[in-house]
Design goal:
2 domains; 361 residues; Peripla_BP_I; 17% strand; binds beta-D-glucopyranose; Rossmann fold; seven-stranded mixed beta sheet; receptor; Bact_Solute-Bind_Prot2; signal; 45% helix; four-stranded parallel beta sheet
């Protein structure tokens, strides 16, 4: 009788625990912000891909705040996650959050952006970010004829390791064309000072990015572009070439350049193939984007998480140094999209529906 009572008590206690402790979660996913279509898109693609898994997954957003990100990770740790997939708001600030997870024996997968200066990252799933910057720059080079073409440089947030990789890639391709006079940099004295250096150190890139960062913020991008246009002389405008780091900032910068009466034409780059930018491309307001098929990144992240839950070693294609360790990584290729291949790259591949756009040929 006593035994039965004890058993009953244990059962009641366990029920109580589940009731107040909430559902257990196997995989926690933390994304940077809902304010950019890019990350809302990742959430949607995660949800699509997770429909058929038996594992329980929870997705949380950090809303641009490293403090909120840490709270999210702590909440997921409390729910018993075994794997954390995290795209950091700030690559080095996120180290504390993943170190807390690591202490609990949780496996950490850095998603799209690398978490830096910590040994608490187990894996990294990413696109080839150097190739993104190279593709953006190559587009500008291919469009330019003659010498002295005005070039305006913009970059992502300095807290995002990817901003450096994109810029490094772009510099690889642009620098020789700046050195030979095809392009003339109009909006960064730091870039001008370094324009004869084919390879920049991280500190040198920091100096340039410090001047031309958008912080991945549309308003900051717009304000900066307007300030540059106000400061520029008429002869620094005309037919301009703009390295914009991603779609959100590209649209903001493009709008600013389009509104300047001394700008005759502009070519502007982007990345992410956000719907609004695809429409801009169809309408001739943005020149190109770099399509990063989020379905693949999501598939890789989930595949890795599943392997880890099942005690298997995930497959990787290389590694990235995060300032402290080499993190094993799986990398995905990217595709350039212009007006000419919107349909084949984005519609025929099932990424978007033709009905999402107007004027598509
Ligand atoms: C991502 C881009 C994104 C940017 C701003 C980068 O780390 O790779 O796809 O546009 O952050 O959120």
């Amino acid at each position: 009788m006593k035994k039965l009572l004890a058993l009953l008590m244990v059962a009641v206690m366990m029920l109580g625990l589940t009731a107040c402790g909430g559902k257990k979660v196997d995989v926690g996913i933390v994304l940077p912000t809902k304010d950019e279509p890019r990350w809302v898109q990742d959430e949607t693609r995660f949800k699509d891909a997770l429909k058929d898994t038996n594992y329980s997954v929870e997705i949380l957003f950090s809303q641009g705040s490293s403090a909120k990100e840490k709270e999210n990770v702590d909440a997921l740790i409390a729910k018993g996650i075994k794997v954390l997939v995290i795209c950091p708001q700030d690559g080095s600030a996120a180290a504390a959050a993943v170190e807390a997870a690591k202490k609990e024996g949780i496996k950490v997968i850095s998603y799209d952006r690398l978490i830096t200066n910590t040994d608490a990252v187990d894996y990294y799933v990413t696109f080839d970010s150097i190739a993104v910057g190279e593709a953006q720059a190559q587009y500008l080079v291919d469009q330019a004829t003659g010498k002295g073409n005005p070039l305006y440089l913009y970059a992502g947030a300095a807290s995002d390791n990817n901003a450096f990789l994109f810029f490094e890639g772009a510099w690889n391709v642009l620098q020789p064309k700046i050195a030979d006079g095809t392009f003339v940099i109009k909006n960064s004295s730091e870039a001008v000072a370094l324009q004869n250096k084919p390879k920049l150190t991280r500190d040198e890139m920091s100096k340039i990015i410090g001047q031309v960062t958008t912080n991945w913020d549309f308003n900051e991008a717009k304000n900066k572009a307007e300030a540059h246009l106000t400061a520029a002389k008429k002869e620094d405008k005309g037919n301009v070439f703009i390295l914009a780091p991603n779609d959100g900032t590209a649209r903001a910068i493009a709008d600013a350049f389009a509104a300047d009466k001394d700008v005759t034409s502009y070519k502007v780059t982007g990345q992410d193939a956000e719907k609004a930018s695809v429409q801009y491309i169809i309408d001739g307001k943005q020149s190109m984007t770099v399509f990063k098929d989020v379905r693949t990144l999501v598939k890789d992240a989930i595949g890795m998480a599943k392997d880890l839950l099942e005690g298997k070693e995930p497959q990787t294609t290389g590694s990235y140094n995060n300032g402290k360790i080499d993190v094993k990584a799986k990398q995905t290729e990217v595709i350039v999209v212009t007006q000419d291949n919107v349909k084949s790259a984005l519609i025929d591949s099932g990424y978007y529906n033709a009905s999402d756009f107007t004027g598509l040929k």
